Amino acid sequence: MAGNIFGNLFRLSSYGESHGEAIGGVIDGCPSGLELDFEAIQNDLDRRKPGQSRIVTQRKEPDEVQFHSGIFEGKTTGTPIGFAIYNTNQKSQDYGHIKDSYRPSHADYVYDQKYGHRDYRGGGRSSARETAARVVAGAIAKQLVAPMIIKAYVSQVGDLTLHTPYSELDLNAIEANDVRCPDATMASAMEDLIMKVRKEGDTIGGVVSCVIQNVPIGLGEPVFDKLHAELGKAMLSINAVKGFEYGSGFAGVRMKGSEHNDAFNSDGTTVTNHSGGIQGGISNGMDIYFKVAFKPVATLIQPYTTIDKDGNTVETKGKGRHDPCVVPRAVPIVEAMAAMVMADYMLLNQIHKNQL
Amino acid sequence: MAGNIFGNLFRLSSYGESHGEAIGGVIDGCPSGLELDFEAIQNDLDRRKPGQSRIVTQRKEPDEVQFHSGIFEGKTTGTPIGFAIYNTNQKSQDYGHIKDSYRPSHADYVYDQKYGHRDYRGGGRSSARETAARVVAGAIAKQLVAPMIIKAYVSQVGDLTLHTPYSELDLNAIEANDVRCPDATMASAMEDLIMKVRKEGDTIGGVVSCVIQNVPIGLGEPVFDKLHAELGKAMLSINAVKGFEYGSGFAGVRMKGSEHNDAFNSDGTTVTNHSGGIQGGISNGMDIYFKVAFKPVATLIQPYTTIDKDGNTVETKGKGRHDPCVVPRAVPIVEAMAAMVMADYMLLNQIHKNQL
Amino acid sequence: MAGNIFGNLFRLSSYGESHGEAIGGVIDGCPSGLELDFEAIQNDLDRRKPGQSRIVTQRKEPDEVQFHSGIFEGKTTGTPIGFAIYNTNQKSQDYGHIKDSYRPSHADYVYDQKYGHRDYRGGGRSSARETAARVVAGAIAKQLVAPMIIKAYVSQVGDLTLHTPYSELDLNAIEANDVRCPDATMASAMEDLIMKVRKEGDTIGGVVSCVIQNVPIGLGEPVFDKLHAELGKAMLSINAVKGFEYGSGFAGVRMKGSEHNDAFNSDGTTVTNHSGGIQGGISNGMDIYFKVAFKPVATLIQPYTTIDKDGNTVETKGKGRHDPCVVPRAVPIVEAMAAMVMADYMLLNQIHKNQL
Amino acid sequence: MAGNIFGNLFRLSSYGESHGEAIGGVIDGCPSGLELDFEAIQNDLDRRKPGQSRIVTQRKEPDEVQFHSGIFEGKTTGTPIGFAIYNTNQKSQDYGHIKDSYRPSHADYVYDQKYGHRDYRGGGRSSARETAARVVAGAIAKQLVAPMIIKAYVSQVGDLTLHTPYSELDLNAIEANDVRCPDATMASAMEDLIMKVRKEGDTIGGVVSCVIQNVPIGLGEPVFDKLHAELGKAMLSINAVKGFEYGSGFAGVRMKGSEHNDAFNSDGTTVTNHSGGIQGGISNGMDIYFKVAFKPVATLIQPYTTIDKDGNTVETKGKGRHDPCVVPRAVPIVEAMAAMVMADYMLLNQIHKNQL
Predict the structure, then answer these.
(1) Do C117 and B75 touch (CB under 8 A)?
(2) What is the interface pTM, i.e. ipTM, of the complex?
(3) Count of beta carbons in the 10 Å neighbourhood of residue D90
(4) Number of domains within chain C
(5) What's B186's domain CATH number?
(6) What's the whole-model pTM score?
(7) Which residues of C touch D265 (CB under 8 A)?
């Protein structure tokens, strides 16, 4: 209930602060007999890790995962998979300047109010560092849900919006550039914008789009655990996310029912897919697609005015190595959370597949 | 796990189909000693019920709730509150025309695929009728979370968008018109649009905005159960919802961090509130506000082409009494789900309020 | 979390007090397509109901269950099954004498302390009346787990103990007498003892034994949710239960490993079954058997001394119609709880049956 | 749902096999601000560890716990506490003899059937090694629930039974001998019996008794999550446990209600305590006491006949270093599970303590 466990049958218990000994987790409920591709797991971690390109934070963290249990001879055993990633580059001295004041639009203030103290060495538990544990579990979930394919990409940075629908994009080109936008021209413009913003010591928001293909029909548990509701919660649990929409989303509001309805083909597929692959909370076999809005990162490398614990006004200045825009590194996190939801709902649906 | 239970400590188990004997639920975890205002509960049911105005479905259902347990001498006892609303106006004959075919963008097809059959007498469990149980539980939750105030209203119908921020609206004027938009001029235009769409036998989408005031600091459980993540899931679980955003939402993506950050006042409140009252998943005491996008209702009173169970093309026509636009009746549902989340998270936060 | 929901995938949310409007529940997670035998459900309710024989309480309650949802054309639909049993014979005037005092070894005192008040009209939520909801859900679970067979019987009343192992008893003879002991001679002695105790205005304890046959191999979730751990919790949740043992139980303590170990036959069955059909928390296909100890009912029809709310000593006297011995009516309750556990664990095991 | 998570608000996610890299866990929901006594944690691990005395297995494992998160400056922070204990003495070669056959009354066979394979290097997940993670979490829970005191001791080994009630024993003498029985004469006899059984290459069962003192009134959630039901499940989840009874237990069956009822003193305490400190599933402030029955360990150092994977009869012989009697090392495990239950229910009860 304290919020560090995700999922129902495929469950991740996550732990770890940015400046503690290690982060890690326990995956409970992964079925036995899954042959793991460890390179793919590390590859997703590398896509998330700091320092991977010039447009992200320049912190260096190797982010190597150690598995402690649940795997024997390269396969899952059905028992819980414990894992840890040791923190090797903590530099807590970088954060001394924030020990006595609250950073605007950070979680400092509310953590202090809720827990009666805070780990001032950095973001602590509110740091995006915890998402590395999500990526490990998500990378395993991806392998479990195959042949489902889950691909995310950056579709907006600031005002720069990629309007091309996903079906007209080459999703294999996502990793061809640092910003992870499959349109090369747009990618280049986005990178320029991020570099410009970084030079100003400022940050900028963005949108990550995600597509899930080869989805079996029937995933989703009405009424409170609709598939898109759980996907939405999963995305909104990622740091800095401010919005989620799937299928026609907010734009669908403007449509009439006669335009929006997806007519059936004779095989049960639909001619259009405004529904985004989900009807009544249950997958209908069409592609699932959704968008996730990320706010601009709160940490600026600029002077700012804020308050200390006693409410006194203080002048301070952001330091350290931070992301000017979070979305390039958020791409594998969005995929990971999507994969965990799909794995969980695939397992939940077994009781119906085995019905009487 | 089958999706009909909502919440952690304040829990609703909901049941009921549109054409069964009754709908209802069990609320487990409501603390003892809450003096209930039964009129307020019925009032919220009346705001949701069909037939309440000319712009909603003309079905007539009294929607009177019977409480079976958990209340003694007008107060909650701490034991589960069982309740039922009997279905009195089922008219399943109205639905004979859909028995043998799948309605586009309805849940017919996926229910049939998932459960191996369907209750063809109407929407069954996928009908919005089940939301009446949510409204009962939400009305009790509202009383539990007082002095928090939860108010929702219609801010968009089709292309008609109310751009005025909530803080400049008179939230006491929401119930002054049938569409539940606090701006009288806009309300009138929205009602005209809905009547026009109804005449065409068509439907139109809309947006419900919601504001939560007097929120204590500290509600929300990092990292997976962030307060806005649970609010998002709650909203996305409502029929026809396609998107959720809070605070600056999708528009915040275009902002720079220097614009978006909410500077502190000396008392810990913030000058602006782009954060939407939540930092790092935890309430910061400022107003929480969010938007919920509803697609146009799928049921049209127009001829349409679809498929039957064998994949044959059939020509059919929507009949019955349906909503041309769902948002006026969705307002109390949005409030109810918000209230249940706030009640649940208020209780979850007790372990921290009572810390050592 | 408030304790009125049982199970993981097959879930009962139960509600209701002895003197409220109705008791009932919601079963969520029953797979679709189960053709229900409604007579069997009512039959189990009749086995539990008061007034069924001279050795139980003489209260008369028809205990007829109304199903509100989740069933269509005689089959489960996969949606939640809501049900209610109206209280028709409340006679709360019978309980006026206990309004101002706490009955020894009842839950009056602790309910008052925990919830800040109590429903003095009788046992309220702590009354065994709530077990009727368990019997409804259990009767459905029994049908779901077929061909598993679950049979309970009375094996001890006071000092009268049936030492014959279950395998030498005719389990079809359980219902042949009022006390539900399959040995006719012992049954007769037990009934005499109960009638004697009743005449004294006193009560006596007893033991219910239960056997589960035709169990598939593999049910049970290590490590915390071992099959026998969940069976134990299920039984200990029944009113008046003080102990649970399975297989060799407390007597097994005295054995050496060389005596206790169950040697394998070549087909994987075992020669002996001291294990009680469960190894390491997982069913091994042998019969599961266990015992449940019930204390003597606390309500006596004798004068007694106790305290009132202010701690003053008061002299009072039990009135009303109570069971002199709870075990004859507990037999279907033990079966019901066992059936719910087996249904739940059968569904939980689907993820392993469908492994990669 | 896969069974490796224990608790509701105070939650342990446990992982690890006997021959893997490490065992460990994540504790989610421990309130912030608890100053930890790390020596007390290690002390409980030392009471559980192999090789501590001549009457337990002679394996040597240091069992040193590393904390990865959730603790800052010696205090809990309210974020999850991740921890690991590395396996340093695995000697999997010891187990080669069991790779191809199933050991009687072990979990080998059912694991293989359930998961489609097994980790033949030892007990794997079914090994009691996993209980070290319980002891870590329990040692923290003990500190959280103070001033509650939780003390367990050995009250029976084979036929040797300590009949003295706990209230007449010196519970501070428990650790004075290797067998952890507070009666020195009985302890000596028990040790002799265990040594005799060991020499025979055999094993023997035992009973652990546990007392919880200074319990606040009101812990326990009716109806399915009664305090003793959760204690029972917690105990039955420990390896080798076959039975649980609390208060008067199985012996109470023989009593009449007039003997069994606990009369009130004017302060709400009771004259006797047959109830074992719990009424209607809720603590009444009196001492809680219960007994846990452990079967004889299945691993014998004797030749035995069993089957291999193909059902062929094979002759084999137990090797390795095993416990002749599990109860001396089970004492801290029983305490740990009891502490976790009490911590969880103390937190669950906050919603009632903070009632309106």
Answers:
(1) yes
(2) 0.97
(3) 16
(4) 1
(5) 3.60.150.10
(6) 0.97
(7) 307
